[in-house]
Amino acid sequence: MKGFISEIIVALILIILSVLLLDTFSGKMPDQALMATVGALVVVFAVFASFIWREKAQDEREQLHLMIAGRVGFLVGSAVLVLGIVIQSVSHKIDLWLVVALIAMIAGKLIALAYNKIKN
Questions:
Q1: Are residues 83 and 102 in the same domain?
Q2: Are 62 and 110 contained in the same domain?
Q3: Statement to judge: residues 5 and 49 lie in one domain
Q4: Do residues 66 and 53 make contact, with C-beta atoms less than 8 angstroms apart?
Q5: Is the separation of the CB atoms in 20 and 34 below 8 Å?
Q6: Same domain, 41 and 13
Q7: Which pTM was predicted?
Q8: 10-38 per-position pLDDT tens digit
Q9: Which structural domain, as residue segments, surrounds residue 107?
C-alpha cells in the first residue's frame, strides 16, 4: 500500500506540473520558471515511469488488474489524441505532435505485442 500511495503522489505531481505548463493563469511564465517546470516534469515523469516499469503482480488477480489499468490508460490516451485530431481538423490546423503521439502509442503497443508473442 505504501508504494501505491507513492505512485498516486507522483502521478498528482506530474498532473500539476503538466497543468502549470499550460500557463492558463493569465500570466506569462518567466523563461527560468518555464525551464525549471519542464525539468521537474521530465524528472517526475522518469520517477513515474520507473514505478510503472517495476510493477510486479503477486497473483493472477493483481496481474489482471495491471492489464486492465494498462488497457484503460492506453484507450483513454488514444481517445484524447483522436479527439484532439478531430477537433483540430475542423479548424484545418492539425498539430503534428498529436498525430506523432498517436502513432507512437499504436506502434509501441504493436511492437510490445509482437515481442511478447516471439519471446513467449
A1: yes
A2: yes
A3: yes
A4: no
A5: no
A6: yes
A7: 0.76
A8: 989 999 988 888 866 666 777 788 889 88
A9: 58-120
For residue 68 the three cell numbers come to 486492465
Question: For the chain, what's the residue count?
Answer: 120
Total number of domains constituting the chain:
2
Residue 28 sits in the same domain as residue 66 = no
96 and 110 in one domain? yes
Q: Are 78 and 50 in contact (CB under 8 A)?
A: no
What one-letter code names the amino acid at 113?
L
- Which residue bears the cell 500511495? 5
CA 14 to chain CA centroid, nearest Å: 9
Q: Which cell numbers in the block locate residue 57?
A: 503482480
Residue 77: phi and psi, rounded to 5, are -60, -45
Determine the pLDDT at residue 1: 55
Residue type, 38: V
Backbone angles phi, psi at 68, to 5 degrees: -65, -45
Q: Which residues have CB under 8 Å from 41's CB, separation 6+? A: 14, 17, 18, 21
